[in-house]
């Protein structure tokens, strides 16, 4: 079965922006677009008037508005819609597992405060088994971002985030734009002697060590995507801040998310959390082992 690009909509301007972004992505990938809306009828055990038919009409109207917008802009794109009889988190998490990409909307809060993902979006991003793209209502791919870079954050060894790099290289190749690979590093809290630091010292310091680690991680993907221009960017600083600064002229930001559990549920990690709330472009979160 051919996988689709999926957009989750709820009638908000942000979700309509996500549907539009998903339509562009589906067009680039030559895939169909699937627009979904989670609506589960849940009778309340309290004396309130509920209108099941009315709520169902609202749910259908949400899908219809998104479908009409996409059809008007991408008339050749194959589009299907479906109301999912499930809670939003469960429905969207299941969609992410079988989709090529899942797209969700993000509410804007302004340049100083960052952006609000919403509880549903955060839970889906933290638990999804496939790539999820977060889009704001003002994340249009117009000038100067129409030809802007795809930016990807890389950390760890060459094997640590291969899925993240693969997604980023494919995105850059589809758009015909350069890929900026960013690796942030910082001095250890206590500069103790170790085998890795000895190797770094022998190479002339920590920065050359980090540059070589980035180069090694990129090597197999450069061979697979020889037409993608790659810019290596190694900076001293926190990963979140370095990536946020790199997002200023980016067309798409790609970050990894390792599954992390806590007493309050799954978490996405500090760098991904910072980028999702403050990046100035759509952000793709790709899970990796």
From TrEMBL:
> What's the source species' lineage?
Bacteria, Bacillati, Actinomycetota, Actinomycetes, Kitasatosporales
Q: Which residues form the UspA domain?
A: 1-136, 150-287
State the name under which the record lists this protein: Universal stress protein
Family that this chain belongs to: Belongs to the universal stress protein A family.
Q: The organism sits in which domain of life?
A: Bacteria
Species of the source: Streptomyces pakalii
